[in-house]
Amino acid sequence: MELHKNPDNPLLVPSTAAASTKGRTLRKTNAALWFLLPSLVILAIFTFYPMIMTAIESLFSTNVRGELAQFVGFSNYAEIFSDPLFLKSLVNTFIFVITAGLGTIALALFLASMVSDKLRGNGFFRTAFASTMGISGAVASVLFLFLFNPSVGVIGLLLKNIGVKQNNLVADPTGAMIILVVVSIWMGTGFSFLNLLGALQSVPDDYYAVADLAGWSSWQKTWKITVPMVSPTLFFLLVVEIIGKFKTFTEIDLITGGGPDNATNFIAYKVYTDAFGNRNFGIAASEALVLTAIIAFATWFQFRFTERKVYYK
Amino acid sequence: MIEKFWHRWWSLICATMAVIAVIIGLVVATTPQHQAQASNGRITLSFWHSMNGPNGQLLDKLVDGFNKSQTKYKVVPQYEGSYGLAESKYINTLHTNVTPTIMQQSDIATMTAVGDYVPVQQFVDADHYDLNQLYPGILSGFKLKGDLQSMPFNASSSVMYYNKDLFKKYGVKPLSQSPSYSEIRAAAKALTEKSKGAVKGATLQIYPWLPEQLAANQNSVVVNKNNGRSSAATAAELNTPAMQKIFTWVQGMIKDGSFQNFGTGSSASANQMAGFLGGKIGIFMQSSAAAGTIAKAAKFKWGETFTAHADDVPANGVAAGGASLWISKDKSKAEQQGAWEFIKYMMAPKQQAAWQIGTGYIAVNKASVKVPALAAAIKKNPETNVPIKQLQAGKVNAATAGPFLVNSQMDQYLGTAMQQIYGGKDIKTSLKEAENEVNKGIRDTNKSNAAILKAVFAQ
Amino acid sequence: MTTSLKHINHYFWLTLVALLMGAPILIGIWASLLPTADIAAGHLTSTNISLNNYIAAIQTTPVLRYMANSFIVAILITAGQFVLCTLAAYAFAFLDFKFKKQIFALFLITMMLPFEAQIIPNFQTIRVFGWLDSYAGLTIPFFASAFGVFMLRQAFLQVPDELHEYSQLIGLNHLQFLFKIVLPYSRSTLITFGLYMFLTHWNDYLWPLITTFSDSYRTTQVGLKQLQAQDTFSNWGVIMATAILILLPTLLILLVGQRYFKKGLNTGGLKA
Predict the structure, then answer these.
(1) Given a cut of 80, is residue B1 above it in pLDDT?
(2) Domain A85-311 adopts which CATH fold?
(3) Number of other CB atoms surrounding residue C18 within 10 Å
(4) Where are the domains of chain A?
(5) Under an 8 A CB cutoff, do A54 and C117 touch?
(6) Of C140, C190, C256, the CB nearest to B28
(7) For an interface test with C, which of A136, A151, A187, A240 has the most C Cβ atoms less than 10 Å from its Cβ?
(8) Are the C-beta atoms of C148 and C193 separated by less than 8 Å?
(9) In a domain, B48, yes or no
(10) Which of A208, A231, B296, C119 is the most exposed place for a label (fewest CB within 10 A)?
(11) How does it sit in the membrane (chain C) (predicted)?
C-alpha cells in the first residue's frame, strides 16, 4: 500500500483526531509485554537495581580495596551532615545553581526579546544565539580556560590591564565560582533562548492590538500581557535549568578540579571524587542519595505544575 | 531536505537501524574479553602509567624498543592520569578484563595493602638477577621484610628550577646549590621589582608532595610512628613547626607580591610550566622529572638546585620520589614472565641512561653513568646530576624515607590547606583543620582495613 | 528617531551581543590557527595563521580515533533507543494492558533519578559483565530512555484514529502498522529525537570517564581531558585545534537540525 507516501492526504487524515488513548485501543492484547520488555529489562538493570544498590551501599563502610567492609547503619549520613566539607559543598552548589540558573534565563529572555519581532535579519541572529545549545561541557571548558588564562587569555590579560592583582581567577575561590557560572550560563542560554522565543512568538498579535486600542502603555503591555503569557515557560525553564545545573560535572572536572579550597566542589563532583578518587563508596553513595532527593523533588515539582502544558498540550 | 530524504528512505533507515542494533547486540554478547593473545602470536601485556608530556613520549619510545627487541611479547602502554587517579582506576578494576599486567605506581603503602601483585623478588630470585647493579638507597624504599615488592623504574627528587637568563637580565645573583628560604625569597623579590612586575619571582604549586619534601628537608615527618614505617600510622603531623615555616615563607612571598598562585584544576601544573617557559616565572619547585619538558621547550638558560631548606635548619635531604613497576597477580604465568622481561629491559643501563637524559628522572642503574650518552650529558651540564647528588647527600632517617600511609587522604586535605593559606587564611588554623581531617581519614581507614593492615605490618 | 535609525541601532546592539556570545568560539578558532609559541608570548594578534595545529593534532594525537569512537557510541545509542523507545511508546500509545498506568508511572519515575546517583553500582555491573572499556559498556546502559518513550508516545498519539482503524480493517498486524503508518507519520519527531540523542551522547562525559581505560574506546569529550592531562606545558594551539575539531560535528548538527529542535521544543519539551 502506498499510504505512507502521503500521510498528509486529506482523505486519510480527518481534521478532528480524537485524543483519548482508550478510544483508540480496539482490542486487548498481551503483545504489550513484548513491546515493553526490552526497555523494562534495561531500566531494571541500569536504573532500578543501581538505585537500590546505592541505597544499600550508603549503609556500609568501604575498605581500601573498594569492597563493602561493614554495615554501619546511618552513620555515613551522620558523617556527611556533620562534615563541614559536605555542608560547604551543599551551600556552594545552591549558590551556583541559583546564580547560574537565574542568569541563564535572564540572558535568554533578554536575547529572545531582542529578536522576537519579525524584523529582517533576525533569523540569522536567532541561529547565532541558539548555537551554544549543543556545545559540550568539555569543549566549553577548554575554550574558557583559554579565555581566563592569566598570562595568555583575553579576559585574563584584560583583568591584568585594569589592575586586578590576582588575575588568575581559577586560583581564587570567588573567581573560580564566577568562571563556572559564566560557562554554565553561556552553555545553557541556547536552549532557554529557543524556548522563550517560541513562547514570545506564540502570544497572539491580537492581544497587543486590543491593548493598543485601549491605550495601554508598553509597560502595561509587558506586565499584563507578555509576562503572564510566558510565565509558564519561564517556570518550566527555571526548574529544568536548576535540575541540569545540579548535575554540573564536566566543567568542574576540567576547569577547577573542585578547588580552590573546595569552593567549587559541588555535590555531583564530590560524589565522583569520593567514589572514584577516594574509593569511599559508602560515603559517596549517601551523598548521591542526597543529590537524588534534591533532584527528585525538583522534578516532581516540575511534573506537578507543568505536566499538562508540556506533555499534553 | 532531511524530511525529503526521510520520506523516500524511511523504511530502509528503520530497518538498518534495527539490524544495526541486533548485530551490535550479537557482537557484544559474543565479544571475547580483552585477549592476552595478539593476532600475530605475541602475548599482549597492558602497561598503565602516569607519564605525560615529553616523558610519556619517551616512555612510549622505550616500550617500542622493547617490542622490537624480541618477538614473544607486545607491551601496550596506556596513560591513565596522575598516580592518584591511576591508582584508583587500578583498584576499581582489579580482576576484570582491563586489569593491566604492568602497573606504574608511586603509592607503595596502598599498593601493598591491596596486595594484588606478585613481588618482583620472586622473579629476581628465579632469574638470579643482580640487584647490586641498582642504587640500594632507592631500592630500600620498595622492600618489605627484605623482599623487593616492585621495581623502582623512575626515581626522582624534588629540585628548584630557575631561569638563569632572567636572573642575569635583572642582575640577580644565581641561586646556590642548596638555597635557603630567605635566599629564594630575596631573589624572587628582586626579580619582581626589577622587572616592574613583568616577572613573578617564584611559585610553589598546590601539590602536597612539595611541602612534604620541604618538611623532610627539615627532618620532619608528616605522620607518626616514624612516618608510618614502624607500624601503621595513627595520626598526621601537619601542624608542625616545619610546615609552619614553609608556609610563612610562602605567605612572605605573597606579601612581597613576588609569588604567582596557579591555583588548582587540571591545568594548574601545565600553566605553571607554561609560565616558566614563557619567562614569566623566575623560580619554581618540581620533581626532577620536569627537566625533560624544560630541556625540550625552554629557549633560555636554566638551572637546577637542591630543594630549598629553612634558614635555621641544615638540609636533611628529601625522600626519593617517583614510582615503581608492579606485576599483577591476576595474570597468567606467561604474561607475568613477559612483564618481568619488560622490567629487566627497562632497568638496563642503556634504557635508564636514555631515561635520565630525556626526562630528568634518576638513572637507577649504577652503570648508566658510564653509558657514553649520559656521561656526555653530565659533562655538558653538571646540573643534570643534581637530583642524584641530592639523594646521596641526604641523611637516611624516617623523614627521608617518606610517609607510608595506606589509602591516604593526606594529599586532598594538605592540598586544601595550601589553597586556604595561599588565599590568606591563618597558617596554623588551616594546618590544624587539615590534620584533623586526615586523622579522621586515618581512623576510618585503620578501622575498615584492620585485617589488611595487620598483614602488611606482620613482620 | 526615524525608523531606519532605530533599525540601525537595533542591529548594532544585536551584532555586539552576537559577537560577545560567539567570542569564546571565535577566539578559540583564531587561536587554533596560531603557533603555540605566539600564543604563549601573548601575541594573539599574530598573523602567522596556518592549519599546522590541525595537522599536528591529527598526526600526533588520537583525536580521530576518539571521534570515531564517539561516533560509533552515539550512533549505537541512538539506534538502540530508537528501537526500544519506539516499541515501548507504541505499547503506551496503541495497546491496552494490565497495570498500564503503573508501568507508565515506573517510566516516569526514572526521569526523577539522576544518573549520577547510579554510577557506582552501574560501574560494578559493567565490571562484572566484563564490559569495562568496550562499546557495550558505553552504550547498552543507555538503550532505554523514559524521555524518549514520552516524546515518541506523544508523537504516536497524533496518529489519527481513522488510520488505526483502517489498518486493522485491512488486517495489518502491529509491526506492519508501526512500520507502514506510525513511523512515517511521526517522521519529524523521529528526526528530532535522533538528532537530539546523537548530540547528547556525542557529548557524554562522566560515564566514558569512569569506564574507558584505553584510546581504543575513549570518546571525544574524555579524550579532550586526556590530551589536556598529557600536555605538560599548555600547547594551546594544538589543544584549541582539537577542541574545534570535536566541536565541528556538533555545530553541523545544530545547523542542519535547528528547525527540528525548535519544533521539538514546542511540542515535547526536550531535555526534560
Answers:
(1) no
(2) MetI-like fold (1.10.3720)
(3) 20
(4) 85-311
(5) yes
(6) C140
(7) A136
(8) yes
(9) yes
(10) A231
(11) Multi-pass membrane protein
